[in-house]
Amino acid sequence: MNKIAKAIVDLSFFLEESKNYNRIKKFLKSVLEDSNHKYSKYFNYLMIFLIVSSVIIIIDEVKHPIEKWLIFYDIYIVTGIFIIEYILRLWVYSDIHKVIIQEFQDSVFLERKFNIFMVMKSIIMQKVQYISSPLSIIDIFAILPSFRELRILRIFVLFRAFKLFRYSSQINHFSEVIVSKKSELFMLLLLFIFVVFLSGVSIYVFEEHKNPNINTIYDAFYWAIITITTVGYGDIVPVTSEGRSVAAIIILIGVGLVSFATSIMVSAFREKSDELKAQKVKNIVYAFTNYYLICGYSHLSEILAAKLKRAGEHFIILDNDEKKVEQAVRDGNLAYKADASSKNVLIDFDINKKVLAVITLAQDDIQNIFISLSVRSVSKDIMLISRMRNKNSYKKLKLAGVDKVVSAANMTSMLVSTLVDKPIVTNAINSILSGKRNARCEQIEVVHGCILEGQSIKDLNIEAYKLILLGVSKNTGFKKRKFIFNPNDDFVFLEGDILIVLGYTISIANFKSIVEKSSIKYARKNR
Amino acid sequence: MQEKIDKILLFGYKKYGSKIANNLKQNGYFVIVVDNDKDAIDKAIKQGFDAYLIDLENDEDIVNILVKYDFSHVFCAMDKDEENIYITITMRSLQNNIDIVSICESKDSEKKLELAGVKSVLNTMEATAQSIYHFLKSPVMIEAIENILYLNSDIDFIELKVPKGSFLDGILVSEINFKKQYNLILMGLVDMEFDNNFIFITKGVNHKIDFGDILLLFGFEHDIEVFKKKLIESIS
After folding, report:
1. Which residues of B touch A418 (CB under 8 A)?
2. Rounded to whole angstroms, how far apart are CA atoms B125 and A338?
3. In a domain? residue B86
4. ipTM
5. Which CATH architecture has domain A433-525?
6. Span A347-367, pLDDT tens digits
7. Taking CB atoms and an 8 Å limit, are B20 and A416 in contact across chains?
8. CATH (domain of B63)
9. Residue B171, domain extent
10. A:324-383 residues touching chain B, CB 8 A cutoff
11. What distance in Å separates the CA atoms of residue A200 and residue A337, rounded to the nearest whole number?
């Protein structure tokens, strides 16, 4: 291996191992190519602004001389950024160093000579593949209008407008619609060309000597296109009866072709519109930092959704039934038609990172168990709540990994007997829980270093904070907790304990902030 | 002190009714089950309830049962909201002074039941959604509360009516330390002098306890019993 080749291979390995290089490249790649990246939106806004402003400048320049700074802006800033963007896109499109490393490893493995030219060829092939892609060609053409010496290049200002395709998802959807009907539109185009050719040639043959407006075959094709598209300017009209017969036939064909084209586009848009709507819902959900996932839209889901909405929480409803999704949307919720038991759907909604809890409220227990198992197969730790309709399903749901099983019948029977027996307490507690009163019940965790840690109940004197300590939930390991009701005065709080307190909203907020601040203070001191 | 209600007439022994019947029975009530479905009645009898098959539209059937027992409460726990509303209206027309409690599944029915004259309505879906919601927000707290309130634990809570002449009559809230002296938690009280409303104890106002006031206390069953005994002994 000669020196140059060795240097190239060394450099490639260096790049492969360099964290900074890879981080920067990954970041730029996602900003440029991933429309869901958080900065991608701002980059797109900037590009749209540059395009629109430069197009306005170029149009304005046609008639009036423009100011110097605008020319400077157009030539150096806009074009400069376009060129940088183009180079960056070319760079992030593929990894050169990976190709080199691959070839080097292959050569070592196969004990053959490291062929630098082979590597160069495959690298160039990859980059050419990008350069020849339609969007890249548009990018190149969009750079051209800045070379003012060549007036003809001005026409490429149009390509700047095309460049908008890249930055606007709406325009992108439009092109997707057209692409989805590619074969039908191509067939239509062939038919169109065929009819134009046939009628153009016949009118030329019939009228070339008799009609003063038709002198060349170009005139004949022009007339054919104007007639077949049902535009009919009237600048060229057939004068012979043969010519008129051709006109009559192609007018009829033209009407057919136009309506055919329209119907293709309409059906394409209709097919695409559901997809677009779904994508819109997804985009909204992706923008949330965290949210709840409700599987199945039932009466219970409706009430829960209303409660979450009132509390300002984000959530998305998944249901397999189109009608239920529509109903959910009509009720003002975010809903998405998908099978919640599908692993891909769950991964798609990022249940490991962004979802706070999954609540399965499907029509029957079989579905709930199935969804729960799918959720557990994707995420072990996520909070999972499921509705139970049949009491025999309790064990099965628990086996499927559900954290909390709720049943309307159980809940009701529990509430009913306390309602007869102790109406005042039940009402008081219900109103505290539902936040109807100014009083609340709250859980407060003993975090490391806060004033509660290592303190006994006697020393804490919680009454001074105008709170009632109902009990403490102790962490006993393995995700299990034990509730200790009304602990003794010598009970000492440890990290991870959770205090259940009752009190007025203001007292709770005050106490919470004292606990939180004390832990922050501790963290700073020990840093 | 509030006495437990003796007899409850329960309509319905299906999804909700069967659960409610068993729960009430566990809490020491005498439950008589009626339903218009033979299977449900057979099941109720099998599980040890006095159960009668009736035709909901036939008032005589209901009157016969009402005459036989002296009910203090009527529970409507049919699976369908319409039936519960119909029963409520029927009961109101037959006997005006009885307390009716009903379950329902929708907000609309809740209003209709209230119009029909029930004492309390329990919206099953609302309660379940509420429970899910609380679990999402503060899971540990809701487990603790449910533990105390509903599950068969040795922790209980009482609504204690202060008897005349007992040691509680006439003292200030600050003069008694429920936790130290009796191992109980005082959550709040209903002051009969004031406005009959529930007052949360942490409000900080030092109330004077009078006879007739209702104290809400949490504690272990044993401690509650001890406290009740002492209170009765203190009546001079």
Report:
1. 149-150
2. 25
3. yes
4. 0.72
5. 2-Layer Sandwich (3.30)
6. 888 888 888 899 999 888 899
7. yes
8. 3.40.50.720
9. 155-233
10. 356-357, 359, 383
11. 51
